[in-house]
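All the exercises in this workshop are built on plain-text protein records. A record pairs a protein's sequence with a compact description of its fold. Read left to right, the backbone structure tokens trace the chain's path through space. Once this layout is familiar, the rest of the handout is easier to follow. Here is such a record, shown just as it appears in the course material:
>
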Amino acid sequence: MSPAPIVLTCGEPAGIGPELAMKAWAALRGEITLAWMGDPRHLPADCPVAEIDTPAAAAAAMQTALPVLRHDFAGPATPGRPDPANAQGVIDVIARAVDLAQSGAAGAVCTAPIHKKALKDGAGFLYPGHTEYLAALAGIDHVVMMLASDQLRVVPTTIHIPLSEVPERFTRDLLETTIRITHDGLKRQFGIAAPRIAVAGLNPHAGEGGAMGREEIEMMIPLLDRMRADGFDLTGPLPADTMFHAAARTRYDAAICAYHDQALIPIKTLDFDRGVNVTLGLPFIRTSPDHGTAFDIAGQGIANPSSTIEALRMAWRMAGSTR
């Protein structure tokens, strides 16, 4: 049996999300089942649309038109110019998609990019981003951001904070929680029975025996040794500069890094257009393309759909692994 359809949220309607939805549907209509949720007025004029009432109806419509779960917005969308009046609609679509995923009507949620300032200005959106809002909707205290492609999966332990704050925020408890959520996500959502996880050191050369920093000796090694004794397959702490070449990548299923750029530079170098953002730790599957709203090219029909296509493909595979 195939998994339940993937719900693709509209994201910011003035961005590239609507045109990417049409392109992704055209590329994937013989491969997966999806339903786009948003206001049909915001889709490109040449997009064939089939309005449906439930995700279950998407399969019958998928071959000839983009299945659309209609959600009316306050107004039309002008490419490149976010309208504050539409902000609440963007937020409500996310919440509605989460409800469908948690009920089992949707196999996963794939989220198109939002524009946080537009949501804050138009609807008083209080969350730093998509991920934090999804966690709040699910009643979850801590989730993990994974960037994934066919070549590499990486997880930053600390994310959107200044580099100067990383050593203080990169704690034993945070690292352990990140490892445990990643391990569970690899098993539950990626179907990997015995995940192998590599852990990067915080410092150059993983501290080089204390010569370049003591976080590895004083915090990381004792933690990893204890978790190995509990049955986790962990390597590290490893020097980050030798973890990401082709031979090294064959030795683990995911790499956990200390901070944002340590994780994202290698995957964006290896597979810039096809990287997918996966949120681990939620009670439902969530993926998203690894790019923003791209207001500068919105409405021109030139946006690259590769990351959206891969995010939908990954959501479909993950949904199939968790059935």
In short: The two ends are 9 Å apart (CA to CA). The first helix runs from residue 17 to 28. The CA atoms of residues 44 and 111 lie 18 Å apart. The mean pLDDT is 95.
